[in-house]
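Sequence only, no structure available. Ideas?
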Amino acid sequence: MSTTVSGKNGTWRNWGGNVAARPAREVTPASVEELADAVRQAAEDGLKVKPVGTGHSFTSIAATDGVLIRPQLLSGIRDIDRDAMTVTVGAGTQLKRLNMALAREGLSLRNMGDIMEQTVSGATSTGTHGTGRESGSIAAQIKGLELVTADGSVLTCSEKENPEIFAAARIGLGALGIVTAITFAVEPVFLLTAREEPMPFDEVLADFDELWAENEHFEFYWFPHTGSTNTKRNNRSAGPEKPVPQLQGWIEDEFLSNGVFQVAQWVGRAAPGTIPAIARISSKALSARTYTDIPYKVFTSPRRVRFVEMEYAVPRAAAVEVLRELRTMVDRSGLRISFPVEVRTAPADDITLSTASGRDSAYIAVHMAKGTPYQAYFTAAERIFTAHEGRPHWGKVHTRDAEYFSEVYPRFGEFTALRDRLDPDRRFQNDYLRRVLGA
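Reply:
I predicted one. Tokens follow.
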């Protein structure tokens, strides 16, 4: 087990660059036993403990001045059970590695988010999701968990074993223990046909229910200051495989989606007055295309332009109204927004603190380029989201606290009571958890 301190002057920073922390020490355990020892040692030294994956959260959910646990040695596939159709992986496995390894085995997750840089434990613990009519977040595909708790004991949880812990720990915010392994449901690899095309904003809003009902995975990006969107429909397909040609893929996914977009952000930052014109050009840059490929090549795409993000889950029935209010707010505010607004959906699930817990949800995400002032825009957007009982993504910027969450999560008390039982001394506490779960 190696113990080190990170970054410049021992400072840890997240991917978005908006969170920094100075842990007392860093530990990279090579086994579950070493991790359990590190937790017990931290208790003896009176230090808090926090695992951190790739730092893709925009909140300070992983920040600590105590012991920072790096899970990268707890990675790789532990077991594939083809009878049960499950795969068990170490918590530090990056989604990218998991997706590629599954594809080689002729397997796939049912649904996934749009980036795959995160570790499986970081992605699930914060409720990372894609879009789906029937298929939910990555955490909703979990069949079992291994968890090191505050006293250093190792628990396994599933619907049959420690079911009350399983209900909560699938999206546990790092508050109940440190996840060391996850068992996911998988299925034989399948093909998706992606249809991406521009569509007027008003048309998408008018047909939103229909677009949702007719597609297994529907999402769209609206460009503020324009009446334009880019829509994406992903549906299962009998084939044949017809991937995006390599050169075309580079032009569209790298040059336009990342390269030109980065330049547009720089210009917009230097001359905010140009942003509406840039938005009109950006919204027309990507043309319609259809292609068929295996799931992770369709669901995920590279994100090289750094940004800061706020995302709320609102009841799906409220999505259109929320988007209309958002457009009115942007039009009246004088704000200059250079990043598109992303809209996705998820079915209700049964995870205690899932943003889709007990209700069909629509996700509305607002972004600003890294380094640009985002507070005014996010504050105005958050006012709209919370008026509709929105639930913020646990890993994205928001200002809500335990009092608010106790109102929008019917089972909030169930989670905090479980935390009292599993971590009475708050070994896994940090400022963020104190705010969102209460002291």
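The two ends are 32 Å apart (CA to CA).
Hope that gets you unstuck.
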